[in-house]
Design goal:
By secondary structure, the protein is α/β, with parallel strands linked by helices. It is built from 13 helices and nine strands.
Length: about 325
């Protein structure tokens, strides 16, 4: 995964930003998505190949490596469930730094697995006896690349349809994908700092215009949150990766350097130590959640994590209390 995709995923961990992005791009600025109803959904799923009547296992940790051929597996970048009564639907977002010809097929596979996963089979029951409605999945491909997206937007565009079949084209799946070019969005449709991001990025394909824009709005950029300025630095390729993995911002021009000064100051040793601590905490959290999916006893999982990460007594007690409270 590239750094643009990774930073995008981190930025969209905030439900307000996720909701605002979807409201502005999918719903044209209408406030359909409410952040308080968003819940993170599992991004990686696998379904059994073969007859639908078979028992389905979606937990990819439960199978042996020898079983791989029997599964169809994909992992999305981001997936949220809007869990509001009478308004339940999934919202998926794929970050894309380069044009991708096969993007319609990729998204088609993601959605096919998601819908298959929603069909809950019970041992010994046929599909015809289980007709639970599917929850719809809406998705956005957020394109972050410098070049214009000239790749395909639908399955039909990818097909070489014989002349004798063209009159039957309506029988073929017209599966379209929504490409959202980060350089070409209307900032007025957004309520969070996405509006500032889209405004800056509208100039990014013309570096002289971008520098002029930044010089005129230095104070406004300086007032943006640290996360937004970091995201912009990555989008505009204005960063360096230090030996310890810390990102520092380059000097694009005098105005840009002044706008990003706060980040550079906070990127010193104290900031770096805090970033490393956050990354370690997130890694521990991910390992615990992954292990819990295997069905191992919680205390056994925590014991393994304590050994793997060499946790101090206080750290170990903190994680034990945190996850025991969630279980109870």
């Amino acid at each position: 995964m590239g750094i643009k995709d990774q930073v995008l995923k981190e930025y969209l961990e905030d439900c307000l930003r996720y909701a605002d992005l979807m409201n502005g791009t999918v719903f044209g600025g209408r406030q359909i998505v409410q952040a308080e109803f968003l819940k993170r959904a599992p991004r990686r799923k696998a379904v059994l190949r073969g007859i639908y009547g078979e028992t389905k296992i979606t937990n990819i940790q439960k199978r042996n490596s020898s079983d791989t051929a029997g599964y169809f597996e994909r992992e999305r970048d981001m997936l949220m469930l809007h869990d509001k009564p009478e308004l339940r639907f999934y919202l998926a977002c794929e970050g894309q730094a380069q044009p991708d010809y096969v993007m319609p097929v990729r998204n088609f596979a993601y959605d096919a697995i998601e819908y298959s996963d929603q069909i809950k089979y019970k041992e010994g029951k046929e599909y015809s006896k289980s007709r639970k409605p599917l929850i719809p999945v809406l998705h956005v491909v957020l394109y972050l690349g410098e070049k214009q997206w000239l790749s395909k937007h639908s399955l039909l565009e990818m097909m070489d349809i014989p002349e004798n079949l063209k009159e039957y084209i309506k029988l073929l799946p017209e599966y379209k994908i929504l490409i959202v070019d980060i350089h070409n969005q209307d900032p007025r449709l957004f309520r969070t700092e996405w509006k500032d991001i889209f405004e800056v990025m509208s100039f990014s394909r013309n570096r002289e215009e971008l520098k002029k824009y930044i010089e005129q709005r230095k104070d406004k950029i300086w007032e943006l949150s640290l996360e937004t300025r970091r995201f912009l630095a990555v989008l505009l390729d204005q960063y360096d990766i230090m030996d310890d993995g810390t990102m520092e911002v380059k000097e694009m021009c005098e105005a840009w350097d002044g706008a990003m000064l706060l980040y550079k100051e906070e990127g010193k040793e104290e900031g770096r130590a805090e970033a490393r601590a956050e990354a370690r905490s997130e890694a521990i959290k991910n390992v615990i959640e992954l292990c819990m999916e295997t069905g191992l006893p919680l205390m056994e999982i925590l014991s393994k994590v304590e050994q793997k990460f060499h946790l101090s007594q206080d750290e170990a007690e903190n994680y034990r209390n945190q996850y025991l409270a969630n279980v109870n």
